[in-house]
Amino acid sequence: MLKEIGRKAYEVKRLTNERISKTNEVIQKIVNILEANNLDDYQTLRRFDYKDYGFRRIRSNVGSEVDIWYLEDGYRVSRFPASREDFGKMRYLHGDFNSDFYFMSYEKTKEFIEILPEFIENLKKVLDEIRKEVEGLPSYEININKVE
Fold first, then answer.
1. Nearest 5°: CA angle at 77, between 46 and 126?
2. Phi, psi of 78 (to 5 degrees)
3. Does residue 141 lie within any of the structural domains?
4. Number of structural domains, the chain?
5. In-domain check, residue 51
6. What's the predicted TM-score (pTM) here?
7. For residue range 16-69, what is the model confidence (pLDDT) as tens digits?
8. Domain contains 145
9. Backbone dihedral region of 99: left (phi > 0), alpha (psi from -120 to 50 degrees) or beta?
10. Upper half-sphere CA count for residue 123 (Cβ side, 13 Å)
11. Coil vs helix vs strand at 19
């Protein structure tokens, strides 16, 4: 009985890390598109907010990064984790003690992964709106089932 529980627990850990890894690949692909097209300023990033999640830039004394965040009232609260071991932990961006942040809890991570298809549909809709405003913005295919 205990051996079976141990096997199931291992499988849950493996699947959780796999889902987090795949989701991070999708997030990074989207961030690359946003940065390559200069769509990574604060006002533009806010346009992509969906439900309680959105892209925000965090800065340190070394540089800055755009990532997906759990938001409250439009302000970043916690960042999508790099792995299962990061749930709820605090880190410093680039080792800068003035640039601390928390990773999302297990519950918020799971919630984001569940709404990811809707989040991407909203992102595509906003990109289409921006494309009408900005001449020459290329079209991108964002497919969560095909991560390169």
1. 20
2. -150, 150
3. no
4. 1
5. yes
6. 0.83
7. 888 999 999 999 999 999 998 889 999 999 999 999 999 999 999 999 999 999
8. no
9. beta
10. 25
11. helix
